[in-house]
Specification:
Length: 185
């Protein structure tokens, strides 16, 4: 039986042991840290205040944002839709305008007017290239006026795609709801 004990063999074994130990330590450290640092960087330096998670909820703070991103959560630019009553309202009906930002360019926002819970009118503005939408006032009214009709309006759309890697499609965005009861006077 021949035993390898030369200086070159000993050096080769020591070098191999060092490389294997290094690889095990680096892989273990990477596994302990985990996550996605590039996505988490989106949240730093106040970035979290302009971001939302995959359920369209704005982050409460940097820590929540970083935690979500580091665990491969999808991060989106904050998207919003807002419906507002017009200053002048019909006696029996509802007039609204809608606006939004952070939306998927080229997508459609659906603004629906309801009377007593049933849809009576819809409008479909297209989101501009910068992710914004602005709907001119539109209305539904009835003649003769019947006091007590309940009207409401809300808008729905789609956020821009995620900022995280890998990129995910936009998520549903829903506006506030505006309500009004006809007064006939």
């Amino acid at each position: 039986m021949h035993i390898l004990t030369g200086p070159k063999t000993g050096l080769a074994i020591a070098l191999l042991a060092t490389v294997v130990t290094y690889l095990l330590l680096v892989d273990g450290a990477h596994a302990a840290v985990g996550g996605n640092a590039a996505n988490a960087k989106l949240c730093q330096k106040g970035g979290w205040s302009k971001l939302m998670d995959s359920s369209a909820q704005q982050f409460a703070g940097e820590d929540a944002c970083v935690s979500d991103a580091a665990h491969d959560g999808a991060i989106y630019a904050f998207a919003t839709l807002h419906v507002e009553r017009c200053a002048d309202q019909p006696y029996d009906g509802l007039c609204v305008s809608a606006s939004g930002s952070g939306l998927e360019p080229g997508s459609v926002v659906t603004t629906t007017l309801y009377k007593n819970g049933s849809a009576v009118r819809e409008d479909f503005p297209i989101v501009q290239g910068d992710g914004t939408v602005s709907l001119s006032p539109f209305a539904h009214f009835e003649i003769p006026c019947i006091a007590g009709n309940e009207y409401s309006a809300r808008a729905t759309g789609t956020s821009a795609e995620s900022l995280t890697s890998p990129t995910l499609p936009g998520i549903p965005i829903t506006s506030n709801t505006v309500e009004r009861i006809s007064a006939c006077s």
